[in-house]
Design brief:
The complex is a heterotrimer of chains A (344), B (341) and C (494).
Chain A lengths: L1 H9 L1 H25 L2 H10 L1 H15 L7 H20 L7 H27 L5 H20 L9 H8 L1 E2 L3 E2 L5 E2 L2 E2 H19 L1 H11 L1 H6 L4 H27 L10 H11 L11 H19 L8 H21 L9
Antiparallel strand pairs in A: 1-4, 2-3
Helix pairs in contact in A: 1-2, 2-14, 4-9, 4-12, 4-13, 4-14, 5-6, 5-7, 5-12, 6-7, 6-12, 8-12, 9-10, 13-14, 13-15, 14-15
Chain B lengths: L1 H7 L2 H20 L5 H26 L7 H18 L7 H24 L4 H19 L10 H8 L1 E6 L6 E5 L1 H18 L1 H11 L1 H7 L3 H27 L11 H10 L11 H17 L10 H24 L13
Antiparallel strand pairs in B: 1-2
Helix pairs in contact in B: 2-13, 3-8, 3-9, 3-11, 3-12, 3-13, 4-5, 4-6, 4-11, 5-6, 5-11, 7-11, 8-9, 8-11, 9-10, 9-11, 12-13, 12-14
Chain C lengths: L5 E10 L2 E11 L4 E5 L6 H8 L7 E6 L2 E3 L4 H6 L2 E4 L11 H12 L7 H14 L15 H13 L5 E5 L7 H16 L3 E5 L3 H7 L2 E6 L2 E7 L5 H9 L19 E8 L3 E8 L4 E6 L5 H8 L7 E6 L2 E3 L4 H7 L1 E4 L3 H5 L6 H6 L15 H14 L16 H13 L5 E5 L7 H16 L3 E5 L3 H7 L2 E6 L2 E6 L6 H8 L1
Helix pairs in contact in C: 3-4, 3-5, 4-5
The chains are: A mainly alpha (344), B mainly alpha (341), C alpha/beta (494).
Chain lengths: 344, 341, 494
């Protein structure tokens, strides 16, 4: 018990998220156990959340610098549109592409994301445009290009192999229908896990991570300490661009088509996830464990509510907003006990 | 002489120049810009973004960002329209407008409570309330597109102040009554911001909240009431849009927040709060509205709209960011010789 | 009429179990200039907040004009005629002089609407109180620090002030501006207004005040007439320790200069600056706030673009266009403003120490070697005697002196040949100041070349082996600290 309270106190914000997740899981177990606790349900969750999960990881990095990335969705959509067209072109009549080609497409997608993110970084570090406006403008610009390229229509008829590869489930250990073994792990989840491990490694173990947190606290001190602030910013936004592009590729596989206005709710959703995960909007603070937990909590909430057909799925957005406000108010009262007066 | 230099040093001057240059360019290319019906069209397209921009302007001056106003406006306008449709209401538009404004005030108070009294960052709070408003509208109220709206609102939306006729093309454009709402909001906002201590308090809070508290401003109450006002005018904008479109589409205002923010900042409002003028805010918003609405005149397909608005945001904010950076760069001011004297 | 304008008696104030004030008392007579001194964290600011009604004391009482109060609200405090001028002046940089001057009065009067004519009158009246001349429509953000302070003083005078509390008012002022401020203070005294002057600068206490009170760790240590006070007593009261000033005697032998600066120019800041610096020497550079001394340090560190001249390290010409270049060339800079330039305040002490050398502590894939990092952190915490129970605590948990040691550690960890310190002991308590001086002398005697930029003349004269005086961007004098006194240096500075 003592160890538990100690753990709770170590990072109250994180602990609150854990408590909320557990409470929700228990609630679902009590009310809809058989419908919620199924492998298929968890597979659906795990196949879906990497779309915005990948973008959220990038959004977290940018917020640690004290900035914000509002261009993720634009990057994701433009990338998926260009790659859909490219795959159609490469596949020609055959309507199928090889595994090697899929790897090539992913590489190309990451390059596009990297370039778009680097543009953000340059506008912010060299031209000194506030991040919120620079990424907003780039988002608009990229969405504009996507619109021009597609004329506002969806790009479909992409080679079926692409979607099939990304949508398959690995680790065939679960008995499925008709005696065949069914896969357990969705490929989308692997992308997310790989990205999350990479981001964790960068933040927790490398000099890049240390520099990022310190620069997020004060850019001026960072300059006085001899850090290459401009390069650090460009790198970070480029990384966020790459992650967004990967998110776009997952979207492409999940919907089997690409369009300039897919996933537009993700822009603010990512920010919400990151803030809920305990990343400070002023920079310098935030851990990946919080962000992961916040992604999982929100995904479970969404999937859980979908198990209640009588409740409109639109309530999900309401609950998200309410959870964000609740956590912030709780944090407020934790920092401002009623007994103590605010310093003047 | 000094006042001229002071004027040309201001962002509003540059954004004004860009605005005029753009208008002239469209005029030269199309010959259609400075026609009475086109100007009326643009002014009527400015009504809704204009009112939203005024609200966003106040929030940015106070030192925050509001991303909840489209959801707030949609919710208040939808709830009001639905209510009066269900009542089979036959009266004038005035009562629905007042009801919507009241709902907007309540929703704005919610923002104000979190931002003012709990001192939470405005952008994050409005992100949350925006989700809540949207969820409440689409979930609890089960919002669907309403193809008809009460007669009074329809009359209000279609009634014209005057009709402008283009002598050469014969095209006509109606100046909608809602334009009066816009002008009224602009006048009220100008009066509040420049002529009341509450309005100066918004500037003071945005400049330095601690100093504002010490000077005797009630910082919490200032923020609280400001968000109520912003909620009221946002709801009014939502109603104007519903009336002008003759139908209630619950989601088509969502997503407007980004372009509105861009317009306000383009007009020289400092993102850190405390400074900016309504004139600049209106010029910046008008610039975006003109780009969005006039591309067809110079033969650019509308799919290019987002591209050009994006480019405008980047170039516009880039130029003003560079100007500020160079002006603040240490060493730019000349050697102060007074020490030798 | 009682003898005292204000008496704070046996004030106790506790925060979360920590006693910030342990029963302190303070008496102020009408129209006197009273100096409240003490090291950082001694309870000065807490007492000011109790007097101005921001904090309620746990016990004790306040007497104003013989009237006894157990606690007061900010509003009552203002009504009694107490005005506080905070270090940040509580101004609005984004608004005009007129609004800054008139807001308090307008709000106090409960006016809801803006009346420009009335506000203009208020502002004019406020400025006339000390004959301060400034255009009413200027934005306060464009004024100099001294002008901002004058605005704050004028504003305070609008409330029939009987007591003006100034919290470290001279921190960011040039010497000339300080004398101007002192003249104003004397003028206010002549009008019968009492001044409580909070400072820890010895010379100011002697120059301006009639009576003094000194706190240490929340307790009253001494109070009395300033004329009964001397240097030694003052230091002893402040710190509870006695210090021997050790004059620097260079002992490291070197014949070749490590740093040579030739005709260095930064347009608009300084011109044609040349000097040599040998290992083991401590070079002092002094001058007024606007003499170009700070820009010189920034230029040597790659933070200002130079338009001419060259920098040589060990005889080799080096191009320094960024702090990175400077570090590579072997130059470190302890900047002027510790809080906004030197430290990542909310971040761990350990990260602050190693950040500039972190690339050297990393192995493959730039993974930080946590053992080497820990060893490095431990070494510097011990070496510079940084008083912290855990180096992973945030810098905010430390006092100014310890914070300055962190900045010092950050640069020493990079093993520079030349260490530049701009205002090395500004805002540092006297104990730490002595320690830092001792560290610098030790470093020099181990062969490091040190540059101290400071306008604290005793500091320069005591610690430097060579002295340059700057005025309006030019080096106007080269002096030998052993044969120079403060008056002579001042003559060159002004």
């Amino acid at each position: 018990m003592n160890a538990l309270t100690k753990f709770y106190r170590k990072d109250r914000h994180l602990s609150r998220l854990i408590v909320m997740t557990v409470v929700w899981l228990v609630f679902m177990a009590v009310t809809k156990f058989d419908k919620f606790y199924t492998i298929a349900n968890f597979q659906t969750i795990a196949g879906k959340f990497p779309e915005f999960g990948l973008m959220s990881l990038g959004a977290m990095l940018c917020m640690i610098t004290g900035g914000i990335d509002l261009s993720s969705v634009g990057v994701a959509n433009l990338t998926s549109i260009l790659m859909a067209l490219y795959m159609r072109y490469r596949a020609g009549e055959s309507a199928s592409i090889s595994g090697l080609m899929i790897a090539e497409v992913f590489l190309l997608a990451m390059l596009i994301g990297c370039a778009a993110g680097a543009l953000n970084g340059i506008l912010i570090s060299k031209i000194h445009i506030p991040p919120i406006l620079a990424t907003l403008g780039v988002n608009q610009l990229l969405t504009g290009i996507a619109l021009v390229v597609t004329n506002g229509k969806a790009v479909s008829d992409i080679p079926t192999t692409f979607s099939a590869v990304i949508n398959q489930k690995l680790l065939k250990v679960v008995p499925g229908k008709r005696g065949a073994m069914m896969g357990l792990i969705p490929v989308q989840l692997l992308f997310f896990i790989a990205a999350a491990v990479l981001v964790w490694f960068l933040l927790a173990r490398t000099t890049y991570g240390r520099k990022l947190y310190l620069m997020g606290t004060s850019e001026k001190v960072a300059r006085f300490s001899g850090l290459k602030v401009d390069r650090l910013l460009i790198k970070t936004y480029a990384l966020s661009g790459i992650l967004a592009a990967l998110g776009g590729m997952i979207m492409l596989a999940n919907y089997n088509s690409a369009r300039s206005d897919y996933g537009s709710v993700y822009t603010l959703q990512c920010i919400l996830i990151v803030v809920l995960g305990g990343v400070s909007p002023t920079g310098g603070k935030g851990r990946i464990s919080g962000v992961m937990l916040s992604i999982i909590l929100l995904s479970l909430l969404e999937a859980g509510i979908n198990r209640f057909p009588e409740i409109s799925s639109y309530y999900i957005t309401l609950i998200w907003g309410a959870v964000l406000l609740l956590v912030m108010v709780l944090n407020y009262f934790a920092e401002h006990p009623i007994t103590r007066r605010a310093k003047a | 002489m000094k006042s001229i230099r002071k004027f040309t040093g201001r962002v509003e001057f540059y954004i004004g120049l860009v605005f005029i240059a753009l208008c002239l360019l469209i005029q030269v290319r199309s010959g259609q810009f400075f026609t009475s019906n086109n100007i009326v069209d643009i002014l009527s397209a400015l009504v809704v973004p204009g009112i939203f921009a005024i609200g966003e302007f106040m929030v940015i001056v106070s030192g925050g960002f509001d991303v909840s106003f489209p959801a707030l406006a949609s919710l208040s306008a939808f709830a009001t329209t639905k209510l009066f449709l269900d009542m089979n209401y036959q009266g004038s538009a005035l009562v629905p407008l007042l009801v919507a404004i009241a709902i907007g005030a309540v929703l704005g108070a919610l923002n104000g409570l979190f931002i003012g009294y709990f001192e939470l960052p405005a952008m994050i709070v409005t992100l949350g309330t925006s989700s809540v408003f949207k969820g409440f509208m689409q979930g609890t109220l089960d919002s669907k597109q309403l193809a008809t709206i009460p007669q009074g609102m329809r009359d209000f939306g279609t009634s014209a102040l005057f009709v402008a006729k283009n002598a050469t093309s014969g095209l006509t454009s109606r100046m909608p009554m809602t334009f009066i709402c816009f002008v009224a909001v602009l006048a009220v906002a100008w009066f509040i911001l420049n002529r009341t201590m509450f309005g100066r308090g918004i500037y003071a809070v945005g400049g330095n909240a601690v100093s504002a508290h010490r000077a005797g401003f009630n910082v919490k109450r200032t923020r609280f009431f400001m968000f109520i006002f912003v909620g009221m005018i946002s709801a009014l904008a939502g109603m104007c849009r519903t009336c002008m479109m003759q139908q209630m589409h619950p989601t088509n205002m969502l997503g407007m927040e980004m372009n509105i923010i861009a317009g306000v900042v383009l007009g020289g409002t400092a993102v850190v709060g405390g400074s900016g003028t309504l004139l600049g805010c209106m010029l910046g918003t008008a610039l975006i509205v003109v780009v969005e609405n006039s591309m067809i005149l110079i033969g650019i397909p509308t799919v290019w709209k987002d591209f050009f608005v994006g480019a405008l945001i980047i170039i516009g904010t880039g130029i003003s960011a560079m100007r500020v950076y160079i002006a603040n760069k240490p060493g730019a001011n000349s050697l102060r010789k007074e020490a030798v004297k | 009429m009682s003898e005292y304008l204000l008496r704070a008696v046996d004030i106790v104030k506790t925060f979360a179990g920590v006693k910030a004030l342990q029963g302190v008392s303070l008496d102020i007579r009408p129209g006197e200039i009273h100096c409240l001194a003490g090291e950082n964290g001694c309870g000065k600011s807490t007492l000011i907040k109790v007097i101005s009604g921001v904090y309620q004391p746990d016990s004790g009482y306040i007497e104003f004009n013989g009237q006894r109060y157990t606690s007061i609200t900010p509003r009552e405090s203002i009504a009694m005629g107490i005005q506080v001028i905070y270090q940040d002046f509580s101004i609005f940089p984004n608004l005009t002089v007129m609004e800054n001057l008139a807001f308090n009065t307008e709000l106090a009067a409960g006016h809801k609407f803006v009346n420009r004519r009335r506000m203009k009158e208020i502002a004019r009246e406020a400025l006339s109180k000390i004959n301060f001349n400034v255009a009413l429509d200027r934005l306060v953000g464009t004024l100099t620090v001294a002008e901002k302070q004058m605005v704050a003083i004028c504003r305070a005078l609008m409330f029939d002030a009987k007591l003006i509390i100034m919290d470290e008012p001279t921190t960011a002022l040039t010497r000339k501006e300080v004398s101007a401020l002192f003249e104003i203070i004397l003028k206010l005294k002549a009008q019968g207004i009492a001044i409580l002057f909070v400072s820890h600068k010895l010379n100011e206490v002697f120059e301006i005040s009639e009576r003094f009170t000194i706190f240490r760790s929340g307790q009253l240590i001494a109070t009395g007439n300033t004329q009964d006070l001397d240097d030694k007593k003052f230091t002893y009261y402040m710190t509870g320790r006695e210090f021997e000033n050790v004059k620097f005697k260079p002992s490291f032998e070197a014949d070749k200069p490590v740093l040579t600066v030739k005709n260095l120019t930064v347009p608009g800041a300084f011109e044609d600056v040349s000097f040599d610096l040998a290992p083991g020497q401590i070079l002092g550079i002094t001058g007024l706030l606007d003499s170009g001394r700070t820009e010189l340090s920034l230029a040597l560190f790659g933070l200002r673009k130079t338009s001419g001249g060259e920098i040589l390290m060990k005889g080799q010409k080096v191009e320094i266009s960024s702090p990175r270049d400077a570090i590579a060339a072997g130059i470190g800079l302890v900047p002027e403003d510790r809080l906004s330039e030197g430290l990542f305040l909310p971040q761990p002490i350990s990260d602050n120490i190693v950040i500039s050398e972190i690339d050297e502590l990393a192995g493959a894939l730039s993974v930080v070697d946590s053992k080497r990092r820990q060893a490095e952190v431990d070494k510097w915490v011990k070496d510079l005697a940084i008083a912290t129970p855990n180096p992973d605590n945030a810098c905010t948990t430390l006092s100014g002196g310890n914070q300055q040691r962190i900045v010092l550690a950050k640069w020493l960890a990079c093993k520079p040949d030349v260490l530049i310190l701009n205002g090395p002991t500004v805002g540092v308590d006297i104990g730490s100041k002595h320690d830092i001086h001792a560290i610098l002398q030790r470093l020099a005697n181990q062969g490091m070349a040190v540059i101290i930029i400071s306008d604290d003349l005793p500091e320069i004269l005591e610690n430097c082996s060579d002295l340059l005086v700057m005025r309006a961007g030019l080096i106007v004098a080269r002096l030998d600290p052993t044969t120079t006194d403060e008056a002579l240096v001042l003559q060159h500075m002004m």
